Amino acid sequence: MNEHGASVDVMFAGPGDAFGSGGRLQTAICVRDTDGCILLDCGATALIGLKRAGVNPNSVHTVVLTHLHGDHFSGVPFLVLDGQFAHREGALTVAGPVGTTARLGQAMELLFPGMSAAERRFDVHVIEISPGLPARVGAADVTGFEVIHASGAAALAVRLRFRGRTIAYTGDTQWSPQIARAADDADLLIAEAYTWSRPIKHHLRWIDLAEHFGELRCRRLIVTHMSPDMLRHVDDLPTGVDAATDGATFAL
């Protein structure tokens, strides 16, 4: 139990990359308490991952986006549409980098013409996060740190303070000192480890995390968003570092 008397866990409704490597669903990380769920990123398969795990999508009250690539944000229109047909009543807050409002509207219109202007029983609020400026997003405090990943808008690592717990998440990026800033004294760092050692522009390798391990002052590390190369090395991870799988749940 945390300082507010509610348990918090992290469930990977999707730990995969854009290509579904290893048969894994695209990025959707559910931070939950008894009142509902915050999604860190919302890839195209987020609804599938939530429903497979027995999570009611209407319980998702907040989505925090790290960047605006399809495997990290294109599940939002489906989440909204599902809410319309599932009689959702509670508001949905979507927070992301500057540019999220326009890109989300474009995605809605592309996928379901007329959707962006449709009347709903519930409100959809969009908050744009400026790097380095803490923002209140629903029940959480969120700070974004600009990292290195080309996506047509700023890409962020995020630091989420929720129900007495601090969770940091790299999103997609090559190594940046901003990762250590986001992870400082966090209960959990969720980090991309796209490859083991092979360099891929704008993406993290495991050896980058290992090289900077002493700078990552977090209490726990879980790696995610793994390519086939990294999946072949999961058993080589050091003791104490976890690798995310579909539906895996970790208590905080």
How many E-type strands?
A: 14
| Total of helices | 7
CATH architecture: 4-Layer Sandwich
- Provide the residue-averaged pLDDT: 96
How far apart, in Å, are the first and last alpha carbons?
9 Å
Profile the largest sheet. Answer: 7 strands, mixed
Radius of gyration: 17 Å
Q: Helix coverage percent of residues?
A: 10-25%
The low-confidence runs, each spanning 5 or more residues with pLDDT under 50, are none
Class, according to the CATH hierarchy? Alpha Beta
Any idea what the CATH superfamily is called?
Ribonuclease Z/Hydroxyacylglutathione hydrolase-like
Number of domains: 1
User: Structural class, please?
Assistant: alpha/beta
Q: Which strands sit side by side, in order, in the main sheet?
A: 6-5-4-3-2-1-14
Shape: globular
Task: Pick out its properties.
Metallo-beta-lactamase, Chain A, 7 helices, alpha/beta, 14 strands, 7-stranded mixed beta sheet, 29% strand, 252 residues, single chain
